[in-house]
Design a protein that fits this description.
Order of helices and strands: HHHHH
Strand content: under 5%
Helix content: over 70%
Largest sheet: none
Number of helices: 5
Structural class: mainly alpha
Distance between the termini: 75 Å
Number of strands: 0
Length: 165
Amino acid sequence: MIVGAKHAQPSPIFNRYVFYFFRTVKIHIAILLSLTALLSCNESSKNHKEDLIQLKKKMQKKLDTGEHMMLTDRQYMFDTDSILELIYKELIVAKPELSKQLVIEQQEWNSKKKQLTDSLWKPVDRIFEETGITPQLEREIAYGTIADLNYDRAMELNNRLNEKK
């Protein structure tokens, strides 16, 4: 390399080629992901029972350590809620004849869940208003209770998803 020489700039043709290449790769990846999602939807519905059981075991193992229990219960609540939503959507697609009934049923279940959630958070809010401190134990109990509610509903919907017609 010659000292003091300017760095060679790529030609505009080279820049266009690189841009085209990466744009094409992105498009192909997007198409591949879309096809994968479409094919997985067309396959027979997955039984999520083992996923739910493994999730519960994993969370219980974390809780048994005694560390970060509130955060573990909170994460468990979010995870069970996500799996519940996934199973619900799969059930709507797999059994469209039940969709109207299922939508109404899920709305009623969500309403009951909200009432329970509100009742669990009232004591937490009250303690916070009185002391300025959010009680960890009460929060942990609220997260765990909501997670168990999600877990039970997910198992129920999973059983319906995988039952034979």
